[in-house]
Design a protein that fits this description.
8-stranded parallel beta sheet, binds zinc ion, about 210 residues, alpha/beta, binds D-xylitol-5-phosphate
């Protein structure tokens, strides 16, 4: 599995060492961008992403928890971000158009859903999106408890992707740690996002490796 630690859980007074640590051990660097409208919290924007992007040597994975996500696609591509996910709840009928817009910028496109959105609502985008982000907590805050029903949602999505003969990746985000990583792998997850379980660890690099081996 690929591990995408979320910088949301890092010490914001010390983002440089956090990114340097992730350059050593992470597969992707997960950037949680919130606007206070789609989700009840504000995280950080381009004044943080721009300098981080100059430091990051691992692929950056932006998770847009914002309304009108398409406004930021070009700017993210200029920052060298490789993967961009946006929420189906924000995009609605424009989801396919957003996927195409990301592809035309050379970016990989991900479609994200919160735990209260039926997973079958992602099925129309199988064969279009490069990956799907299943939230295993409600988007907005780090440090929440993993919602166990997420395992069934991941398994259902994995089964539908396989049934159609596609290869889209499944990313899981929220409350991920060594206690559920192996169940997530068995359910069909490819990428684990982990915030607190990595950054609250005494040895974040070992925590990343433990998730990868789970
Ligand atoms: C929540 C974010 C997550 C969050 C995960 O809205 O999308 O990426 O940082 O944090 P943990 O791993 O602490 O649940
Ligand atoms: Zn996230």
């Amino acid at each position: 599995m690929l591990i995408a630690p979320s910088l949301l859980a890092a010490d914001f007074m010390n983002l440089r060492p956090a990114v340097e640590m992730l350059n050593k051990g992470a597969d992707w660097i997960h950037l949680d961008i919130m606007d206070g409208t789609l989700v009840p919290n504000i995280s950080f924007g381009f004044s943080v992403v721009d300098p981080l992007s100059k430091l990051a040597t691992k692929p950056m994975d932006a998770h847009l928890m914002v309304v009108h996500p398409e406004r930021w696609f070009e700017r993210l591509s200029q920052d060298g971000v490789s993967y961009v996910s946006f929420h189906l709840e924000a995009a609605g009928r424009k989801t396919s158009a957003h996927i195409e817009a990301l592809h035309s910028l050379g970016l990989k496109a991900g479609v994200a859903i919160n735990p209260d959105v039926p997973v079958s609502r992602l099925f129309p985008y199988i064969g279009k999106a490069d990956y799907f982000l299943i939230m295993s907590v409600f988007a907005g805050f780090g440090g929440q408890k993993f919602i166990y029903e997420s395992l069934d949602r991941i398994a259902a999505l994995r089964e539908e992707i396989s049934r159609r003969g596609h290869r889209a990746l499944i990313e899981v985000d929220g409350g991920v740690g060594t206690g559920n990583a192996s169940a997530l792998r068995q359910a069909g997850a490819d990428i684990l996002v982990a915030g607190s379980s990595v950054f609250n660890s005494d040895d974040p690099l070992a925590a990343i490796e433990a998730l990868r081996q789970a």
